[in-house]
């Protein structure tokens, strides 16, 4: 027989689908691709001009809010470093974050003054944060993903949190698994936590030699206990599964 | 052989794909579906609260612009009917329409006054228009699709125009084909034009009896000429194709 997809000959044992199902599947694929094109067009339409984009003229942008970053470590004299600020629109922040919404729709200090102080964040990270709120896009590296996930959690921007967590999960490796595990715990990042924990359990033999392990025992021994508990559960389950397959 | 998709038996002549291609296609479908989910989440994130939505409190919405509809037919005394107005944000209008962008970023009357008059449109249509600019969504009927397509063309909101045109194209039938053909001509709606023209050509026998045909001959005979030209081209092509298949 000849495969209608790859055009190569195959034996009866290597048969996949009948003609009808092959045609249906091709149609489905075409439909899904068309749907993707439609959705992409919608996204392009909904994306706003970012006020931190070079091409955007802030003078004419009618922003009605300033975000001030407060990064103690970067400032020599004061704990609060007010300049430069990132301009934004109330309407956008209200749409994107329930925390900003509560802040700006109720008569709070931030709403009256038109200024929001964002603590423990650098100017660059704040710019990327605002850019994402307007465009749903940002080019991540591992540090930026960490920083933005923390901000996203604080301001309940779920979509950004999921975006960063997905990126970080794809970057988990033996060297950073313990750090990512602890980070995921602190910030309720379940998907990242599972990926990191799984990798840690795959390398239990060398766990206790690692510097980050020793640090974690010092800082937060409960998290270490959870690693051992998960490992134990896995061992028990594996043993039970083995027993099951060995049964006559 | 057994089809891995529908689980039914089939003969050699009805073979579709080999096993490998079947598995690849299944994976591709899963990937496309995941991509669709991601895109939908992005759209949900990017969608803004609409200022014409009942759930939206305009008092706290920080809108900085009013759209005034001017529908002469609805107003008994004056040609311009200023009330009620639809509130909006400059930033959103600038992002969605190059016409609004030019209007609001240059020191034009509309930018200074914070008021934009939208002519020849009812209050309801204007509300739907603004709603779409914020959410990329609107529930269309045929009249609304016409009205919004006209507005979308005027303000160069391409995505809305395509949205309305797609809807109208799906609604073309024998009764409205001539009207839709003329409408599509006036508003450069190529897809709609082709669909309407194709249906008109499929029913040439009854064309000249139709009331809308007679009206079109009166109003815009050039459009009628174009119908006949297209019909002639189609006849010539069909004849040529027939000749080709009849050749030995």
From TrEMBL, chains A, B:
Stretches assigned to the BTB domain: 63-142
Transmembrane annotation, as ranges: none
Pfam families, sorted: BTB (PF00651)
PANTHER family reported in the protein's UniProt record: SPECKLE-TYPE POZ PROTEIN (PTHR24413)
Record keywords, A-Z: Coiled coil
InterPro entries: BTB/POZ_dom, SKP1/BTB/POZ_sf
Entry keyword annotation includes Repeat: no
Pathway note: Protein modification; protein ubiquitination
Coiled-coil regions listed in the entry: 18-49
Source taxon at top rank: Eukaryota
UniProt-recorded name of the protein: BTB/POZ domain-containing protein
């Amino acid at each position: 027989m000849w495969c209608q997809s790859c055009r190569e000959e195959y034996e009866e044992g290597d048969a996949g689908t009948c003609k009808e199902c092959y045609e249906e599947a091709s149609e489905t694929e075409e439909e899904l691709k068309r749907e993707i094109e439609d959705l992409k067009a919608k996204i392009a339409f909904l994306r706003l001009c970012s006020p931190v984009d070079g091409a955007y003229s802030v003078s004419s942008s009618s922003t009605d809010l300033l975000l001030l970053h407060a990064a103690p470590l970067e400032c020599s004299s004061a704990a609060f470093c007010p300049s430069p600020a990132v301009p934004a629109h109330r309407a956008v922040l209200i749409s994107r974050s329930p925390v900003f919404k509560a802040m700006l729709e109720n008569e709070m200090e931030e709403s009256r003054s038109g200024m929001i102080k964002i603590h423990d964040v650098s100017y660059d990270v704040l710019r990327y944060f605002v850019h994402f709120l307007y465009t749903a896009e940002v080019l991540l590296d591992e540090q930026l993903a960490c920083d933005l996930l923390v901000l996203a959690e604080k301001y309940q921007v779920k979509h950004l949190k999921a975006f960063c967590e997905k990126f970080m999960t794809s970057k988990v490796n033996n060297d950073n698994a313990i750090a990512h595990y602890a980070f995921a715990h602190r910030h309720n990042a379940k998907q990242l936590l599972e990926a990191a924990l799984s990798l840690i359990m795959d390398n239990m033999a060398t766990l206790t030699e690692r510097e980050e392990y020793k640090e974690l025992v010092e800082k937060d021994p409960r998290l270490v206990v959870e690693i051992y508990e998960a490992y134990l559960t896995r061992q028990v389950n594996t043993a039970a599964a083995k027993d099951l397959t060995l049964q006559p």
